[in-house]
Automatic annotation (TrEMBL):
GO terms for biological process: phosphorelay signal transduction system; regulation of DNA-templated transcription. This is LuxR family transcriptional regulator. Residues 22-138 form the Response regulatory domain. GO terms for molecular function: DNA binding. SMART domains: HTH_LUXR (SM00421), REC (SM00448). The keyword Cytoplasm does not apply. Keywords: DNA-binding, Phosphoprotein. InterPro entries: CheY-like_superfamily, NreC/VraR/RcsB-like_REC, Sig_transdc_resp-reg_C-effctor, Sig_transdc_resp-reg_receiver, Tscrpt_reg_LuxR_C, WalR-like, WH-like_DNA-bd_sf. CDD domains: LuxR_C_like, REC_NarL-like. Residues 153-218 form the HTH luxR-type domain. Pfam families: GerE, Response_reg. The keyword DNA-binding applies.
């Protein structure tokens, strides 16, 4: 007999047999939010415990009431789905995230998987695909699309220029923009320009995320 996953205070009441799967939803698009709420609520297997327009709103709600599953859009007004995954990991919450996104980039899928997403569903899929993914994740199974392993192993740093690689190494060493400018002989504005290009190429929004990606790639290179 297969055991359902235990969820802290939900260990008795929220298995698929004993009760409904509690879900929160976060997406920047109000039409998507209301559509998802209606879709999930209409299915007898789920209970919608909150609808959120931003990552911070979702995180604040989870502090008050942890739920089993969060359906999260990748692009939120205040952060990416990757940043939501990072916050959940920092807080050591048991909520499992299903990323629901229109982003078709392999980099987004890779970041989601590395960030600890349990599920990843494209908005181009039939709604039933999302519902079944949520059920699978609640049962303790990953629900990820088929991906080319070579794509996931693709080095996101390989498209960087020599200057951008130099800057990324400087960031990883904790250098400030002022220190980078002084040590490379370029102006602070030029440093900012190169950093913006660097962040765009890596698909990140700040230096902490860039450094995290740099560290993860280097770590995987050594395994």
């Amino acid at each position: 007999m297969r055991h359902e996953p235990k969820w802290g205070r939900y260990s008795r009441g929220s298995t698929l047999m004993a009760g409904k799967i509690e879900v929160m939803i976060a997406d920047q698009n109000p039409v998507v939010r209301s559509g998802l709420e209606a879709l999930v609520q209409r299915d007898g297997r789920f209970s919608v415990c909150g609808i959120h327009a931003s990552g911070e709103s979702l995180i604040e709600a989870l502090k008050v009431k942890p739920v089993e599953i969060a359906i999260v859009g990748w692009t939120l007004p205040d952060m990416t789905g990757g940043a939501v995954l990072t916050r959940l990991k920092q807080e050591k919450w048991r909520t499992r995230v299903v990323i629901y996104t229109g982003e078709r980039s392999g980099d987004v899928l890779r970041q989601a998987i590395k960030g600890g997403a349990w599920g990843f569903v494209s908005k181009t899929e039939e709604p039933q695909v999302l519902l079944e993914a949520v059920v699978s994740v609640a049962r303790g199974r990953l629900s990820l699309p088929y991906v080319d392993i070579d794509l996931l192993n693709h080095d996101p740093l390989e498209g960087l220029t020599a200057r951008e690689r130099e800057l990324l190494a400087a960031l990883a060493n904790g250098w400030t923009n002022l220190q980078i400018a002084a040590r490379t002989g370029i102006s602070r504005n030029t440093v900012k320009y190169h950093l913006k290009n660097l962040y765009d190429k890596l698909g990140v929004s700040n230096r902490a995320m860039a450094v995290a990606l740099h560290v993860s790639v280097n770590r995987s290179d050594h395994h």
